[in-house]
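re: that chain from earlier
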Amino acid sequence: MDLSTSPLFHRLADARHVLIAGAGGGFDVFSGLPLFFRLRELGKQVSLANLSFTRLEAVEGTVLAPGLMRVDAHTNGPEHYFPEGLLARWFLSRGEQVPVYCFERTGVVPLREAYEVLRERLGFDTVVLVDGGTDILMRGDEVGLGTPEEDLSSLAAVDALPLRDKLVVCLGFGVDFHHGVCHAHFLESVSALSQQGAYLGVTALLEGMPEVALYRDAVKDVCERMPRAPSIVSLSVVSALEGEYGDVHRTVRTKGSTLWINPLMSMYWAFDLTAVARRCLYLDSLRDTQTAWEVADRILSFRNQCQRIRPWKDIPV
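^ sequence. v structure.
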């Protein structure tokens, strides 16, 4: 590598088939769309998956295995919340058939098994786990962990897969303040990973990039079709892409809160997944969980037994 090389794309240069998977549910898969479009332009085979907040029992998709469903543009699902199906329909409006593979919210064991089934079917050799926000880097002793249950279940499941490469990419610096995340602790995590050679730098998403324009169009289209539950994270990132700053609200869901829309929100922060997993203080305790309830209970138990919770720190600038 040198100054003219993106460490993230240098790492992906030899990948043949990349699975871009939303780590934390909801719209996390959307945060991977700019990467999806760029990798396709580079000639890679790319697939999309998401840990789903959609009630999959109400979806008429193709069940590939317990806890794994293939959703396409013609899949029927809940009217009020079905971002994966609406994303597939957005692709169809552009003349493309792009399925989204949905993982059920469950424990690490069945989630890992579902990932293994999908790997056998698709043959991907690389996973990029995408987090809308940055709380996936919290190791467990921070004052605020954000919403770790889904992120860390995905992290543990992918960490166990035998693959050529595994990466974590975060988008939306500052968004997790709403969930109590201290971003000074996030930056400490970045520094610690940098010491291990596991930090792959920051890649700016700019409004003039064609893949970013497609991402923004997909977010706006799906959020308009889901007026009762648009994505706070994705709309905040879009606001940052469009040059907004400060307490800017795109949805009534954020009414009464103070937002900090800022240019750092529209940047990819990339890391080696194995190193991120090794830093988590409680990840090993999640590896044999069977249900989402067990995951939440193990995290709560760790927090109750943690001898020192690092207090809030303001960024001194």
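The beta strands are 17-22, 45-51, 62-65, 68-71, 100-103, 126-132, 165-171, 199-204, 267-272.
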